[in-house]
Every structure is written in structure tokens, then in C-alpha cells.
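Note to self: the last two entries modelled the partners one at a time, which told us nothing about the interface. This time every component goes in together.
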Amino acid sequence: MTIAPLPQRPLTRADTQSLDAADVLAPLRQRFELPEGINYLDGNSLGALPKGVAERVERAIREEWGQGLIRSWNDADWYPAPLRVGQTIARLIGAQGHEVVVCDSTSVNLYKVLVAALRLRPRRRIVVCERGNFPTDAYIVNSVAELMKVDVIYADPDQVPAAIEAAGHELAVVQLTHVHYKSGQLYDMAALTARTQALGAVVIWDLAHSAGVIDLQLSALRVDFAVGCGYKYLNGGPGAPAYVYVREDHLSEIRQPLQGWHGHKRPFEFSHDYEPHPGIDQMLVGTASQLGLIAFEAALQAYEGVELAQVRAKSMALGDLFVRLVDERLAGFGFGLASPREAARRGSQVSLTHEQGYAIMQALIARGVIGDFRAPDILRFGFAPLYVRHVDLWDAIEALRNIMHSGQWREPRFAQRKAVT
Amino acid sequence: MTIAPLPQRPLTRADTQSLDAADVLAPLRQRFELPEGINYLDGNSLGALPKGVAERVERAIREEWGQGLIRSWNDADWYPAPLRVGQTIARLIGAQGHEVVVCDSTSVNLYKVLVAALRLRPRRRIVVCERGNFPTDAYIVNSVAELMKVDVIYADPDQVPAAIEAAGHELAVVQLTHVHYKSGQLYDMAALTARTQALGAVVIWDLAHSAGVIDLQLSALRVDFAVGCGYKYLNGGPGAPAYVYVREDHLSEIRQPLQGWHGHKRPFEFSHDYEPHPGIDQMLVGTASQLGLIAFEAALQAYEGVELAQVRAKSMALGDLFVRLVDERLAGFGFGLASPREAARRGSQVSLTHEQGYAIMQALIARGVIGDFRAPDILRFGFAPLYVRHVDLWDAIEALRNIMHSGQWREPRFAQRKAVT
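The predicted structure of the combined assembly is written out below.
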């Protein structure tokens, strides 16, 4: 994808429309049901609804469940769905089809792989994580550390490499989230994976904010384990099932603790002793959430034929455009940039800081521009390259500019906190 | 509900129709979408589709997800759904609304409460379970026992009380499934709970085959913990989310190991340290599976206004009728009774044994009578009292009789094993 260089002069709305006209991914927007009058920059929290999902789920309910009943576990291929959807995701994250399975939540999957990883390195006692990572990762790591009696070192993002070196041959596991949920900052997955493994440890990447927007190459980098969620850029729907990746050579040597019947080698023998499935199926636990899987599978058709390298290129261009528009059009309003300026160090979001961030975001949402707020002062804007246009960023910045100019964010209704922020 | 005594002479189809005519629960069948020509006796594996579910889920997808997008976590009350659906289930299992939450799978929930229960009794080292229980329970118990270094005693069903006594003051936890998945045998929940607690231990009941068909009284019996699944008699749909019950006084003293952000006291503060929610919310882990929850909630309307004591009475009557019809009409064909003869010792299923059980069940399913098979030789027939009629049991037995008379089960097509049996 070649993009014409942007003019040096301050940009206009027409410039952003020209970028859309030249965008080879622009037709993908037609794959989504987007509400009229909404400028949706929160696909990093809940992806938009792809076309076809509602029809597919209705058929699953009325025909497969309603008419097929229990027979649909065979006849409608419900049983292999976790593996089948895993194969589709594998392509998007640069893994092999038999290394990924869809199940449970990201937190539960992290618990499984963390115990499994620590069991691979029983004589090493240190786990290195990022302080300030998405909290559920820290909560799960702390819980596992207590049960397995290992120590957790929390390092600030730029201190992670030093913490890894300091742990040295005591290092068992490095657990990081590839793209930071607040700042959008991107770790160097290749370098950190290689260095962790050189020290004899294993790495677990949380791909929550990477999958679907970055051309991940888990196999090429020989990443040990990864987990991620289905409902952000992958558009799987609210609370879509998560996925877990295990590098193929680990499959024969790990043991995960949530050993349920669907992870058994022969689940329908109902045998008393647990014998893990030799494949990625061993990461399954209980009966798979079929409606969630079916919706997720239908949603993933939005990525059919899409090259992640092109998605990443557009994502970087969108981020650069947003940063430039912030510089050009929001100067003097008290916004700070919480994300890296360089696209190569950033995921598919740009976060701003503002003392009055909460109220400003509510005012923006009231105008139909949807981003989100993360305490204490972060306004997050996520760019889902499959459906976000360049002109959307212009319009979002323009709305922000109007809110700041008019002081509209001061209206009392925008100060009221909601249950989910 | 008064049911006229059945005649002493061999029953006729008309007798079973008379029972239906007198059945006060008969109108509930109208709450379900049942396929034409199917006699469904497998609601203990996957409950039938209640009316209204497809419409509710379609609205959730098209309007709440598609139009509302991220705003629906507040505006469509997605966030409180696990608690709200938990409250509905609480009534069905005789618990208080704030003691039940819907999340994850039964296996994952068992893992949580088992670790939590063992932490309540740190100086006791024995867990008593049933040998031959549904395998996932044993797999999870064994995994937790290894991590927490306790011993598991597996006792045959009739030896469970003796095993509890033998463990004595070493007993930490008794974990049992109330109704056995194969035999339908029912434990005496009151006696076993009381005796376990008298020894200073805690009890965990798996209600997979009880909820929705037995008038459970968890609060009255002061049961410590319980888990159960949504997709059997509760009709929540394939892979519906499971639920977990924690007695209210335990909520302030337990710690479960899958500590994820949705179990945090203030999840949207995104704080580094985990602080469990003081309520049942602490059992939540990751983002809730909304489509599954919404389907489950809509499905539970089938139980609206239904008294479980009446459901249990009908369930017992159905079981007694089935056993009598087996005696009267299937004698000499080699069937054995794998379930207790007394209704009071049986859940809502009757299981038969037969050397050729697999092929016989396939032949039966081919005739539209759906039960299921459990290795090595069990034919299971589950009676969901909300939609199974007395005449359905007559017709099922008649189909079995024809299959055995004709030898139709010998057709090669019925010997072929399916992926899910």
C-alpha cells in the first residue's frame, strides 16, 4: 500500500478524505453494521458488529439448538468449534493452526499457561512482569505465584529488560502484554522473547490489544505461550471467548492445572484418570460456550482475505494522523500525549491525558464520538483499521476542539460516573 | 398436585394420556420450541430451546452490540448480568440472591471453590469424593490436591459416609455430585452436609443434574459451596455459562485463586493490587460471556412462577412410570435398571443397561426418540418435567420394544461411533 505523503501545511478535512480515497482497505468497512451518526473509536474495547453474525447466531439457536438439540454436537460441528475458530485466529497471529484454541476468558487462560510455564522451569523462582500492566494479568500472576511459591518482580516498562537481566538464571517466566491498554505502548516482542529464552526462561505474551491490528509472527519468533481476547479488534462480541496459543513443541511437555473433561485425550470414555490430550485441545476445560464461539467465528469472516501487514500499515498511518491533528488543532487545551509518538512503538490506539478527561470523554460520547476513559486521566482512542476512516479522526478532533472551545464538558451531566467507564 | 393412583393391570397408552390430562404442569410445554416428530428425553444433557430466546439474542446482537456498542455495558445492563442471572437461579436452588453468580464453566467454578474451601481448613489434609463421579470433578480435584498438597479419598457411592467418618478430623472437604450422571442416583444432601460440617469440614455440591428438577434448599441445609451448569435442565443453551453458590457467611473469609479483574472490589479503578469484592462478585474472573448470559436469562423465563416442589413431584412420577413400563413392556430383552427403583433416591432420569446399548440408542434416535449413551453400557433417559409428557415415555418404551422385537438395532449404521456420544 503506497500512501501519498501528507502536505507540510496544516491539514484540512479534505486531506483526510483523500487518504480514505486512496485506502485499499476502505472497502472492508462494508463488512460491518455501523450505527448511523456514530464515530466509533473504541474498537479496542468492544469491536463493532460484523455483518452476518446476527443471522448466523439466529440459525444456531433456532435450527441447531431448537431443532437439532443434542445431535448438533455432532451434526452441526459444535464439538470441534474451539479448534476450528482457533485455526482462524492462528493465521491472524502468525501461529500454526494446531497451536491455538478458543476457550474461557483471557484471565483463565493466563492462569493455565502460567502454571504450565512455571512447571517447565521448576528450579527457577522469578517471574518478571510489568508494573502498570492491565490489572487482571497482575492479579492472576500474584495468585499463581502464591500457590507455586515463586517471586514476582514488577518493573516499569522501560526497566523490563534490566529486570530480566537481573533475574538471570533464576528467571522462570516473563509475562507481558504486547500493547499497553492505557498508553498503547508496544514492546519489542522479538528482542524480549529472544533474551528471555537465551536466559533459559519462557515468555507469555498477552495479545489483547495486538491481535487483529499488528502483523504478529508468534511462530517465527518462537514465542512460548500467548493469550488474548476475542472482543476487541477481533470483533467477537461482548465477552467473546478468549484464545490461547502454545508453541507446538511445548504441547507434549506441559501440564495445565484446569484439567477438565474437554481437555482429556478421550473425553467420551469418561475415565477416572486424567490423560491430557496431546494437542492444543489439552487447554480446554469445560463445555465450550457455543453461542459465543459461533458469533466469534462468524465475526472473524471480516478478516477473510485481509493481510495483517496492510492492516498494520493503515493502523500506523491512522495513529500518526491522529497525533498530527492533536498537535495542529488541540494545542493549548491542556491535552498531553500518553502514547509514543513513533508509530513503530505504538499499537493501534492513541491516548491523551487531560485533567478533566472523564467529563471531556462523556461530552464527546454525547456527540456520537465514542472513545473511552481510563483512570486517572486517560482518553483512549482506538483505531480499528477495518472500519475506521481517516476522516473519522478529523471529525473526532473537531468535536474535541468544539467541546474545549465551548467549555461544554463543564455541563454537570458529564461529571456523573457510570458503572463501567 | 394430586395424581390419581395408576391401575394395577398393565398400563395402556391411554393411561399415560390420562396422566397428562391431569398434569398441572402440562401447560409449561408451550414455553418451548420443540421440533415436530421428536420425543426428547435428553434434557439432562442439553435442555430444549425455550421460546423467546432467539428473539432476545437477536436484539442483543443487532441493537445492544450493533447499535449501542460499548455503551451497552451500562445502557443495556450488561455489566450486572452475572449477578442478575445468579439471582434468578438462586430461587431455583433455594439460595439467597446474593449467594449465586453466573460465570465460566462448572469445572472452572469447581476449581475456584475447591481452592477456597481448602484455604478455609489449612490444617486438614483430606478431600473425600466419589469414585465414578463425572470425571471432570475428579480431574479438577486431583489438580487442586497436587497444588495444595492434600490427599483425595475416592469412595464408592455407598461407602462415602464411611469415608467421611474415617477421615474424621483430618477431613477438609467433601465434594460430591448430588445426582449421578450415569445412574441418576441421588445423595442425601441434608445428611451428608450435616455430617461433614459436624466434623468441622466443608461441603461442595455439584448440582449439574439437580438444578431445575429437584426442590433444592441450599440455604436451609446451610450448604457451604455449590456449582452447576446452565445447559441441562435449566435450558440455557449449548455451553451456557455455569453458576457458583457461596454461603453468605463464607463470602468474607474465602479467597479463590482465579482472581481476575471482574472479581475486584472496584474493577474500574484498575489498581495494581487485588482486593476481592466483598460479595459473590468475587467469584467472577474475566469479562462475562454476554451472549451466553443473555440467552440463559431469556431461557430461565421458562421457570417463571414454577414451583420446584411440583416439578420434583412430576419428575418422580415420570421416573416411576418409566420404570414400570420397562418392567411391563421390555422384559426379556436384556435390559437392566441402572437407576434406583425408589423415586426418592433418584434424580430426574432413569438409566438402563444393555450390552448393545450403543446401537440400541442409535436406532432409537433414528426413530426420533432422543436419549443418550454413556460408556460402557448405559442408556440414559432424562425427564425434563417442564416439557416431557407421560405419553412420551409410553412412546419411547414402545419404540424400544419395536427395535428389540425387530432386531433393528443390528443394522450396521447403528454401530458407527460418533465424535460425541
